[in-house]
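Format notes (please read before filing issues)

Several people have asked whether sequences and structure tokens are stored in separate files. They are not. Every record keeps both together, in the order shown below: the sequence lines, then the token lines. Line labels are part of the format and must not be stripped during preprocessing.
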Amino acid sequence: MPLYWKPFGAVSPLEIVSHRVVWSLFLLTILAVVFRQLDELRVVLRNRKRLAVLGVTAGLLSVNWGLFIYGVVSGQVVQTSLGYFLNPLVSILLAFVFLKERLNPVQMAAVFLAAWGVGHFGWHLGRLPWIALGLAFSFGLYGLLRKIVAVTPLVGLLVETGLMAPVALALIWTYSTKGWAGFGTSTQLTLLYLGAGVVTTLPLLWFNSAARLLRLSTMGFLQYLAPTLQLLVGVWVFKESFTSREAIAFALIWTGIAVYLCSLLQSRRYAIPTPDPD
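Then the structure lines:
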């Protein structure tokens, strides 16, 4: 994803997010027709409670997209990767607070290590790592709310982008009339705008589908693949700074992740009944 958004260069993140919403809505509408999910869409649109929740998730998703693109185009890919490393642990914390899911002492220690890592990162950064925290908490809250609303991934994302579309179209029109738009200024940039719907929609749909098909422990490991790749891209491709200070912060977070995943795997092992030898 950083490799995709980086070529936009000095284009406003607001314009990029607006096109991301519009082209995602276009693609999702086609998919809803192809997979015959328009009936479910009508049911959701008639339910005010579901619409209200999806309105909040749409806002959280737009904030998440905007922060990520801003982090990439402003040369802060390392901090965006930090946000997505934190995201699963933030989700655990939110589940503990709002869903009353219990954490054992080992899992609490894992969350503490991750928080220590963020504190270390922010202290040596000289300011609050707001991009990382914003990404982690916006997507964590998004996942929490999507967990409690009864809607399939495709229809839910279609409604969310539909709710964001009026603001996105207004911003696109404003940038166009003011002469600030990047869309149409070059063939390469225009193709990047048009492809924004694909690179936005498919990963989210695949993630939601995989979450239902794979074991939780498997998903836990796979969820750290993306921020690891983002970190490598930021350091090796975009040549961003990664000193011993950042290494210590990430080591604390990775240790917290490892502790939590080991605790999760151990609990699953104990939960599996041992077959009777007789």
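For reference, the curators noted about this record: The longest helix spans residues 244-271. Residues 91 and 114 are 13 Å apart (CA to CA).
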